[in-house]
Design goal:
100 residues, alpha+beta, two-stranded parallel sheet, flat
């Protein structure tokens, strides 16, 4: 398409640079979408959510045409799966900030 060559995501590099799925941090909400080629370089799940990653959250969006950054667009026509991810992120961030 468009005669462009786009290299695949550098997953191994991203994992080594950012800490793979063993990341330890606080208050980060990761959203990945089913059609996002970068999903494998991100946090799709937490291997230790009850201990070292208890202040991290993940949400996986499964819907047609839900690709990279689809969760960042707030509009009424978003698929329900995107709206659910956005609502989950807002609720968790409000909790972290002490609003709820």
């Amino acid at each position: 398409m468009f005669s462009l060559h786009i290299d695949p995501p550098a997953i191994d590099y991203a994992h080594s640079y950012y800490g793979d799925s063993n990341m330890q941090a606080d208050n980060i909400f990761f959203i990945n979408s089913v059609e996002d080629p970068w999903q494998y370089a991100g946090m799709r799940y937490l291997p230790d959510p009850d201990n070292t990653q208890k202040n991290l959250r993940t949400h996986y969006v499964e819907c047609a045409d839900c690709g990279h950054c689809s969760d960042l667009h707030v509009k009424d026509t978003n698929p329900q799966a995107v709206k659910n991810a956005q609502a989950a992120a807002v609720a968790q961030i409000e909790k972290w900030m002490g609003f709820t």
